[in-house]
Specification:
It contains 5 helices and 4 strands; from the N terminus they run ααβββαβαα. With about 150 residues, the chain is α+β, with helices and mostly antiparallel strands. The protein has one domain. Strands 3-2-1-4 form a 4-stranded antiparallel β-sheet. The longest helix has 16 residues. The termini are far apart.
Length: about 150
Amino acid sequence: MSGTRLLIENALESIRQSFEPHRFTAGDSHALAQALHQRFGGTLTAILRHQVDETDEPCETTYSHMVLALDGEEFDIDGADASQRWMEQWPEGEVDKCGMTTEFEFVMVEPSHLPVFLEMHRARCDEALVAQLAQMIASASPEAPQLDHAPKMQ
C-alpha cells in the first residue's frame, strides 16, 4: 500500500467513525471527494449512470456518485476501488424489470467547475461539510503536504 493510499485510508476511517457512511453514498460523495482533493490533489471524477432502452437510446441520465482519482486508484467513503464497487450495484448490460440496461460514463470535473456541474445535475455542495471534512482529513493525515488549490465555491 502506497504512503498516500494509507493516509487516505486513515482519513476515511476517521470520517466513518464520525459520520454515517451512507451519507457519502447517498448525496454527499462530492463533498468528500472535494475535501480529499484539497488535501491530496488528484482528479474529481463524476460517475454518470445512463439508463438505456432496448433501442440503445439513453432514457435517463443521472449524476450517480463522485470519487477522487489519484495515482491510478479511485476513492470514496469505502476506500479504494470506488468506481468498480459503485458500478457493481448496477451491472452494465443486465436488463432490469423495466427492460432497461445501465451504462456508465466517467467525467473529470475541474474543481473550479464543480458548482456548475452540480447545478446542472440538480445537486449542491454543503460548504460547511466540505470544510469540516477537510479539517478532519488534515488532522488524520498530518504527514500529507497541504495543497493550495482548494476550489472557490460561489
